Amino acid sequence: MIWNAVEALRGGSTSPEIASQVLAGSGGILLIAGLWTPVAGILVAVVETWIMFSHPSDGWGPILLAAMSATLAMVGPGARSIDARRFGRKRIEPPLI
């Protein structure tokens, strides 16, 4: 996501393409840092879905990135993320049968 944003800024892309790639890249930076993970994951999933429909020649890349970021939004931040440091680590324990 970050690489695509840098390439869109460097190349002579159109304005809507640059905006979508920069939004996805900034969401990617937030996901790497583990800051606002659910919000950033949903943002990236929506933007990558938008990229997928607006540029159908891109292929499977936006689909994969949208699925992975939606998964991160649902699972939550990792143990070493900024969110875990600020709000505490949340563990999901399955119920005993």
Architecture overview:
The chain is mainly alpha-helical and 97 residues long. It has one domain. The chain is 69% helix and 0% strand. It has helices at residues 2-10, 15-33, 37-54, 61-75, 82-87. Helix 1 (2-10) packs antiparallel against helix 2 (15-33) and helix 2 (15-33) packs antiparallel against helix 3 (37-54). The longest helix has 19 residues, at 15-33. The radius of gyration is 15 Å and the shape is elongated. It starts with a helix and ends in a 10-residue tail after the last helix. The mean pLDDT is 85.
Key structural traits:
mainly alpha, 5 helices, 97 residues
In short:
This protein is mainly alpha-helical and 97 residues long. The chain has one domain. 69% of the residues lie in helices and 0% in strands.
In the predicted model, the low-confidence regions spanning at least 5 consecutive residues are: none
Distance from first to last alpha carbon: 42 Å
Classify the beta-strand content into a percent band.
under 5%
Helix content: 55-70%
Content-based structural category: mainly alpha
Number of domains: 1
Q: Can you count the helices?
A: 5
What is the overall silhouette? elongated
Mean pLDDT: 85
Q: What's the Cα radius of gyration?
A: 15 Å
Following the backbone from N to C, one meets helices and strands in this order, namely: HHHHH
How many beta-strand segments?
0
Query: In this structure, how is the largest beta sheet organized?
Result: none
